[in-house]
Specification:
By secondary structure, the protein is of the alpha+beta class. It contains four helices and three strands. The chain has one domain: 2-Layer Sandwich (GMP Synthetase, Chain A, domain 3).
Length: 112
C-alpha cells in the first residue's frame, strides 16, 4: 500500500515530468508523450514512470530515446523539485500499454 508521502511525491514527479516531456516534444511536432502513472518505492529511491506515447507506431523508438536521455531528464527533474525533495529518485521508464489492452478487449468483444 502506498503511503501519503509516496502518493504526494508520485504526483509531484508526474506533474514535473509531464512538463519536461511537453517542452521536449514540442520541437519534434506530431509526437505526444504523456506520463500516465508514477510509482515511487517506499524508500523514495526509485520512481517507475509509465509513459503513453502517440502515435503508437513510434512508441518503441521514442521510449528508447527517452531511456538514452535518462540522465538529462533526471537532472531537469532534480532542478524542478529541488525545493521539495533532497534527493531525486532514479527513474525507470516503461511503456504504458493499458489503453492498447482495453482497445484489444473491446475489439474482441465486438467481434462476437
Amino acid at each position: 500500500m502506498e503511503g501519503k508521502r509516496q502518493a504526494k511525491i508520485s504526483r509531484l514527479i508526474q506533474k514535473e515530468l509531464s512538463e519536461i516531456f511537453r517542452r521536449q516534444t514540442a520541437a519534434l511536432g506530431g509526437v505526444l508523450v504523456s506520463v500516465s502513472t508514477v510509482r515511487v518505492s517506499p524508500d523514495l529511491s526509485i520512481a517507475k514512470v509509465y509513459l503513453s506515447i502517440f502515435p503508437p507506431e513510434k512508441s518503441a523508438e521514442i521510449l528508447e530515446n527517452i531511456k538514452k536521455q535518462q540522465k538529462t531528464v533526471r537532472y531537469e527533474l532534480a532542478a524542478a523539485v529541488k525545493d521539495t525533495l533532497r534527493k531525486c529518485p532514479e527513474l525507470a521508464f516503461y511503456l504504458d500499454d493499458s489503453l492498447d489492452y482495453v482497445e484489444n478487449i473491446d475489439r474482441l468483444l465486438s467481434e462476437k
